[in-house]
Design brief:
Elements: H1 6-13, H2 17-24, H3 32-45, H4 51-58, E1 63-68, H5 75-89, E2 93-98, H6 103-115, E3 120-123, H7 133-140, E4 145-148, E5 158-162, H8 164-177, E6 183-186, H9 193-208, E7 218-219, H10 225-238, E8 244-247, H11 250-262, E9 272-276, E10 290-293, H12 296-311, E11 321-324, E12 327-329
Parallel strand pairs: 1-2, 1-3, 3-4, 4-5, 5-11, 6-7, 6-8, 8-9, 9-10
Antiparallel strand pairs: 10-12
Helix pairs in contact: 1-2, 1-3, 2-3, 5-12, 8-9, 10-11
């Protein structure tokens, strides 16, 4: 099947190629009736614009790179769906990579996307990412980049955040209102700002209710099932059993629940649980897990809008930080039985 070009349309209408080009690029110096004739003939002949030529004209690849830590839960896929919704409407294509929570892979992904000449990047850091020199280099070169969810406060870029402090506070206070006194916190990776904010919310909820938090109630952990399992074993072996546990991530909470149940503890009668991020399996485990839900689709849409604004910005760029809110989905894992 022959590919129809603007030369074919020009020949058919006996017009100059430059006139056809002006019609397709919506230039002001072409009569409306001529433009309409050209567009109608193009449609009749089955003309399709050459995307490569358009990209050269715009001096953009019209590709956006997205780097996320993992695909295991629903959080990051839903963020991507939200971002794609906005980017596709704006004419951009999306290249998606995942680091598998590995810093080295994350940087390789960024460099791969750079080699593919993406116009900008949307990134959520892996839990291993402590060295941000590569990202500082990107920012200093003026590469449009937006970070979301897992960010580093030292980077002067646009960011889309969740109010981790407020919702960790509410989640902890929910347990306190259930009359749980001895509450442990399974923290996230120490290098992430969200970990610090969730810990701060946990501590401040205790301060509000004049409850002390010994260091032994803070258990360093991470975001995966096995991290929760290890943390639970550490707690059980210490024989210092809490009334309740607030985990910085749902998978951590679910892993810990599994170990406690395996050792004969009942949930929530012996130990109550609250997680964070509303994993897809949170409401399907036994008992269903109380969790903080985040506006995943809106996080993606907001990140995409910020990135497009930076790419198309013609003046002085000023980074923006947008913080979104969520809700606490209360289920039986945290409800004290009466």
């Amino acid at each position: 099947m022959k590919h129809v070009t603007i030369k074919d349309i020009a020949k058919e209408l006996n017009l100059a190629v430059s006139t056809i080009s002006r019609a397709f690029n919506d230039k002001y110096d072409i009569r409306p009736e001529t433009k309409q004739t050209i567009l109608s003939k193009a449609k009749e002949m089955g003309y399709r614009p050459n995307p490569f030529a358009q990209k050269l004209i715009r001096q953009r690849s019209m590709n956006i790179g997205i780097v996320i830590p993992e695909f295991i839960g629903s959080f990051f896929p839903e963020v991507i769906i939200g971002a794609q919704e906005v980017l596709f409407k704006a004419g951009y294509q999306v290249l998606i990579t995942q680091s598998n929570e590995c810093y080295k892979t994350e940087i390789e992904n960024v460099e791969l996307l750079e080699q593919n000449m993406v116009d900008g990047l949307i990134i959520s850091l892996s839990h291993q990412t402590k060295n941000i020199d590569r990202y500082k280099e990107l920012v200093s070169r003026g590469t449009p980049v937006v970070f979301f969810n897992r960010v580093n406060d030292e980077l002067n870029t646009s960011k889309v955040l969740f109010d981790d402090y407020e919702w960790a506070f509410f989640a902890t206070e929910h347990l306190i209102y259930q009359n749980y006194k001895k509450i442990f916190h399974l923290t996230g990776p120490a290098n992430l700002s969200l970990t610090k904010n969730r810990l701060r919310g946990f501590l401040d909820a205790h301060k509000k209710h004049r409850l002390k938090v010994p260091d032994s109630h803070l258990i360093p952990s991470d975001f995966m099932l096995e991290d929760g399992e290890r943390a639970a074993m550490k707690i059980i072996e210490s024989e210092n059993i809490p009334d309740a546990i607030f985990a910085a991530g749902d998978l951590t909470a679910i892993g810990a629940m599994k170990i406690f149940k395996k050792h004969g503890y009942k949930i929530p009668e012996d130990v109550a649980f609250v997680g964070f991020s509303e994993h897809t399996i949170a409401q399907h485990i036994d008992p269903p897990l109380t969790s903080v839900a985040q506006p995943t689709f809106e996080i993606g849409r907001t990140a995409a809008k910020l990135l497009i604004a930076q790419i198309e910005n013609t003046g002085v760029f000023v980074p923006q930080t947008i913080t979104l809110s969520g809700q606490l989905n209360i289920r039986s894992s945290s409800m004290k039985l009466t």
